[in-house]
């Protein structure tokens, strides 16, 4: 090598051999050569390096020397071949620091961190090893005098292994980036067919290094006859034409069996030039992908594909749920439409029913008006004849007592019938006024014991064989009530006691006070009322099982309750079957 000062450099191109150099492999290498960039301004260095490396190989691949006689020439070579793994770089070339400047150009301007740079110098003192190692991103520092053939081979193999590991790490990183970028769009909602096609594209990208792998996606699909057929649902490359066809029609028997086995076991299978992947979901079946390419799949790519399968499996469920949601939405829209039609029909029916109810209500109101008119007519037209009949019966009873005593019983029947008819008219009139809210209390101070006595007197006359006991000393002499309505209340209760007790059973009327309330009790010793019927006893038109054979309308006790409530009081009943009943009226004084 020529020294820059014009003198001869007596340094050796390479150091003497430590021993006989032996080739790393005795069989002829068959793989593509490892390119080694040699940057030196001495052509003899290039020639000697080529000679030394001619007998060596690594991993079944020989070495190839790529020469550059200057730093500028090396820049051109690196721009054209950025994938060079190793560079043997001299320091002193066209300038004293040309090699060092080239190092900075490679690392900083080209951004090439993969290239393993081995600095070779014949003048170690001009580029001290410690300063160079610390100040420049190089991977080894060798003096030309120490680089024997064996050491050169060892240095290159170490550098190539480091470069290969870096490339593997970068490929894995890029694969992970492709997984992240490929799986993210798969979570978008789309139909299953579009999703599987998109997934086939993304699977190809995960292991794509510039080639175009053939990808086939298959699912087990139910046919009309109930059989399951493995059908192609998406395809790329050589399989793009087979979409919708049975997998056995476009695959060889061996390939079809591999797909079927993977679908059955749900386990991924890897071969030299192909792999078969199973994308599993919890509820929506399995989809099998078959990938084929000329370049063998590495163990790192196997791990990348496993990771990709695990990451996008959930997107299958999302797509299946999306399709179920779309189907449910269609069903819901149809049901809403049907329900809307049904509601329209129901609305029309309701309108017709409303019209019928309105007409019925009009007829009901008309009937009630007619009933009210009829009751008014009955009250007016019947009361006078009934009063005349009652008066005539009284006169006849007075004379019969002197002339024909046996007629008194018949006359008593006549007078009782008149009183019952009069009471029936009064009850219906009062009930009608209550239902129409037309009943108004006419309160006045009333001698309550005297009122009770007046109510009981007609019953004594009508039923001379019955005993009516009255204990009224505890009642106040004056009470502010509607005398006519309270008389109707007591008359109804006494009448019921007479009707539902034996022919000789006593009727007891008891009066007392409870604070500010007057308490009137009517007790009989008759049939009694069954306990299950007590809650309905005051309902309008209700007649209990004990009323069989006894005349009545079922409005008497309802009228009693309504009148007492109008007075601000209450009415209760205690009854024991077969032993009689006690009706208790509480009235504010």
UniProtKB/TrEMBL annotation:
<dbReference type="InterPro" id="IPR003661">
    <property type="entry name" value="HisK_dim/P_dom"/>
</dbReference>
<dbReference type="InterPro" id="IPR003594">
    <property type="entry name" value="HATPase_dom"/>
</dbReference>
<keyword id="KW-0902">Two-component regulatory system</keyword>
<dbReference type="InterPro" id="IPR001789">
    <property type="entry name" value="Sig_transdc_resp-reg_receiver"/>
</dbReference>
<dbReference type="InterPro" id="IPR004358">
    <property type="entry name" value="Sig_transdc_His_kin-like_C"/>
</dbReference>
<dbReference type="InterPro" id="IPR036890">
    <property type="entry name" value="HATPase_C_sf"/>
</dbReference>
<keyword id="KW-0597">Phosphoprotein</keyword>
<feature type="domain" description="Response regulatory">
    <location>
        <begin position="35"/>
        <end position="159"/>
    </location>
</feature>
<dbReference type="InterPro" id="IPR050736">
    <property type="entry name" value="Sensor_HK_Regulatory"/>
</dbReference>
<feature type="domain" description="Histidine kinase">
    <location>
        <begin position="377"/>
        <end position="589"/>
    </location>
</feature>
<keyword id="KW-0808">Transferase</keyword>
<feature type="modified residue" description="4-aspartylphosphate">
    <location>
        <position position="90"/>
    </location>
</feature>
<dbReference type="InterPro" id="IPR011006">
    <property type="entry name" value="CheY-like_superfamily"/>
</dbReference>
<dbReference type="Pfam" id="PF11849">
    <property type="entry name" value="DUF3369"/>
</dbReference>
<dbReference type="InterPro" id="IPR036097">
    <property type="entry name" value="HisK_dim/P_sf"/>
</dbReference>
<keyword id="KW-0418">Kinase</keyword>
<dbReference type="InterPro" id="IPR005467">
    <property type="entry name" value="His_kinase_dom"/>
</dbReference>
<protein>
    <recommendedName>
        <fullName>histidine kinase</fullName>
        <ecNumber>2.7.13.3</ecNumber>
    </recommendedName>
</protein>
<dbReference type="Pfam" id="PF00512">
    <property type="entry name" value="HisKA"/>
</dbReference>
<dbReference type="InterPro" id="IPR021800">
    <property type="entry name" value="DUF3369"/>
</dbReference>
<dbReference type="Pfam" id="PF02518">
    <property type="entry name" value="HATPase_c"/>
</dbReference>
């Amino acid at each position: 090598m020529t020294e820059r000062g014009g003198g001869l450099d007596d340094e050796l191109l390479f150091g003497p051999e430590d021993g006989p150099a032996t080739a790393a492999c005795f069989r002829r290498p068959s793989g593509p050569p490892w390119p080694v960039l040699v940057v030196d301004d001495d052509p003899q260095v290039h020639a000697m390096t080529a000679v030394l490396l001619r007998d060596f190989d690594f991993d079944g691949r020989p070495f190839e020397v790529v020469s550059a006689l200057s730093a500028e020439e090396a820049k051109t070579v690196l721009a054209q071949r950025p994938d060079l793994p190793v560079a043997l770089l001299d320091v002193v070339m066209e300038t004293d620091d040309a090699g060092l400047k080239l190092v900075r150009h490679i690392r900083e301007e080209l951004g090439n961190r993969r290239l393993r740079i081995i600095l070779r110098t014949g003048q170690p003192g001009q580029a001290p090893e410690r300063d160079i190692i610390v100040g420049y991103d190089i991977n080894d520092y060798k003096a030309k005098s120490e680089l024997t053939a064996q050491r050169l081979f060892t240095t290159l193999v170490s550098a190539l292994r480091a470069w290969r590991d870096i490339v593997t790490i970068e490929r894995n990183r890029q694969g992970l980036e492709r997984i992240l970028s490929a799986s993210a769009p798969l979570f978008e909602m789309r139909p299953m067919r579009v999703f599987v096609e998109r997934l086939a594209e993304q699977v190809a990208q995960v292991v794509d290094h510039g080639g175009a792998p053939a990808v086939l996606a298959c699912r087990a699909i139910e046919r009309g006859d109930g059989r399951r057929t493995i059908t192609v649902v998406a395809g790329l490359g050589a399989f793009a034409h087979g979409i919708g066809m049975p997998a056995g029609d476009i695959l060889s028997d061996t390939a079809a069996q591999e797909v079927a086995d993977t679908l059955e076991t749900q386990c991924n299978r890897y071969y030299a030039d192909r792999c078969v992947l199973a994308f599993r979901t919890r509820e929506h079946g399995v989809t099998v992908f078959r990938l084929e390419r000329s370049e063998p799949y590495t163990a790192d790519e196997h791990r990348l594909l496993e990771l990709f399968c695990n990451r996008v499996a959930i997107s299958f469920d999302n797509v299946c749920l999306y399709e179920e949601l779309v189907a449910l939405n269609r069903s819901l829209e149809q049901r809403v439409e049907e329900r809307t039609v049904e509601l329209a029909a129901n609305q029309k029916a309701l309108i017709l029913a409303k019209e019928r109810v309105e007409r019925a209500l009009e007829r009901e109101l008309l009937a009630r008006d007619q009933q009210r008119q009829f009751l008014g007519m009955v009250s007016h037209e019947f009361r006078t004849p009934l009063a005349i009949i009652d008066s005539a019966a009284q006169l006849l009873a007075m004379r019969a007592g002197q002339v024909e005593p046996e007629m008194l019983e018949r006359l008593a029947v006549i007078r009782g019938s008149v009183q019952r008819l009069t009471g029936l008219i009064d009850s219906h009139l009062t009930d009608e006024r209550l239902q129409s809210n037309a009943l108004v209390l006419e309160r006045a101070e009333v001698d309550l014991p005297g009122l009770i006595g007046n109510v009981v007197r007609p019953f004594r006359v009508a039923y001379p064989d019955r005993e009516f006991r009255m204990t009224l000393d505890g009642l106040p002499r004056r009470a502010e009530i509607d005398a006519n309505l309270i008389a109707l209340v007591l008359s109804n209760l006494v009448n019921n006691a007479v009707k539902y007790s034996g022919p000789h059973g006593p009727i007891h009327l008891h009066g007392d006070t409870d604070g500010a309330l007057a308490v009137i009790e009517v007790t009989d010793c008759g049939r009694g009322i069954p306990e299950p019927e007590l809650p309905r006893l005051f309902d309008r038109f209700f007649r209990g099982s004990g009323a069989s054979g006894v005349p009545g309308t079922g409005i008497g006790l309802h009228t009693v309750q309504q009148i007492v409530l109008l007075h601000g009081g209450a009415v209760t009943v205690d009854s024991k079957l077969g032993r009689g009943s006690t009706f208790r009226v509480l009235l504010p004084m």
